[in-house]
Amino acid sequence: MLVALVSGCLLFARLPADAHAPAPSYDLLITNARVVDGSGNPWFRADVAIKDGRIARIGRISPETATRTIDAHGQILAPGFIDVHTHVESIYSLPAAENFVRMGVTTLVTGNCGTSTTDVGEFLGRIKDKPLAVNLATLIAHGSVRRKVMGLGDRAPTPEEQKQMEAVVEQAMKDGAVGLSTGLIYVLGTYAKTDEIVGLARVAARYGGLYATGAACRKSPDPVGISFVIVNGAPVFENNQMTAARSGVALRGSGYLASNPQITQIH
Ligand SMILES: [Zn+2]
User: Fold this and answer.
1) Which architecture characterizes domain 81-265 according to CATH?
2) β-strands 224-225, 54-59 pairing
3) Which residue among 10, 107, 197, 241 is the one 20 to 30 A from 205 at the CA level?
4) Ligand 1 centroid, distance to 184 Cα (angstroms)
């Protein structure tokens, strides 16, 4: 399991060689850490031993038991963070993903906002030849599926096109996609009516996927500021809620600021 040390620099110390010492059983020991384990518990002070890339022991652990020791000097030690909203379709060109790893992010979810690969099997399969420093998951995105099946047309899909889009989503879910994304403020998302999205979300739901939307509406008078778009009101949000309710898919809003009581109810 990848772990992340957060904030500040670390001192690396190699133990002196000792012919009489027992062979170390851990590859790495992180001492004097404040552990935040991600379960919701308060932090606690502990040492963490790692063997073969996995956490082997947490507690008070003697430095002699490890090949290499890092003294965390009371800094936070936590499981790697998950960034659920990325656009890293080109990650294989930067497999070290240093910009994420240096922030403690070790799992990425890409394919957000209606844009993704449409061949999830091929996309995830590339990891075999090109290992990444991070874990990778992808959504199958409505806009990309629509483009593949219908081109750039501003019109409703024919029943046959709807079926084809649902088949692309189904294949993507079988190939490991974690859900469906939309970007209903972006072309081609702006061309879609609720029924179209519901049809695709229903397929994702059948495979246990979630519905991740980066949708927003810019017309309402009561703005809600967020990270990458401005959510100015409820119409599209209601549309998304309706999509979730009708398709049985779990809804995740992307980038919403939780100052709207409606929005805090989703995750
Ligand atoms: Zn996005």
Assistant:
1) Alpha-Beta Barrel (3.20)
2) unpaired
3) 107
4) 11
Q: What is the mean pLDDT of the chain?
A: 80
Report CA(87)–ligand 1 centroid distance (Å). 6
The Å distance, Cα 245 to ligand 1 centre, comes to 23
What is 137-157 written as a DSSP string?
Answer: EEPEEHHHHHHHHHTT--SPP
CA of 147 to the centre of ligand 1 (A): 18
From the list 198, 145, 153, the residue with the least C-alpha distance to 169 is: 145
Q: Does 3-78 carry CATH code 2.30.40.10? A: yes
Q: What is the pLDDT of residues 169-216, one digit of tens each?
A: 999 999 999 999 998 888 999 899 888 998 999 999 999 998 888 754
Q: What are the start and end residues of each CATH 2.30.40.10 domain in the chain?
A: 3-78
pLDDT of residue 147: 98
DSSP-derived 3-state class of residue 190: helix
Q: How far is the CA of 141 from the centre of ligand 1 (A)?
A: 11
* Distance (Å) from CA 189 to ligand 1 centroid: 13
> In this predicted structure, what is the pLDDT of residue 185?
83
CATH 3.20.20.140 location in the chain? 81-265
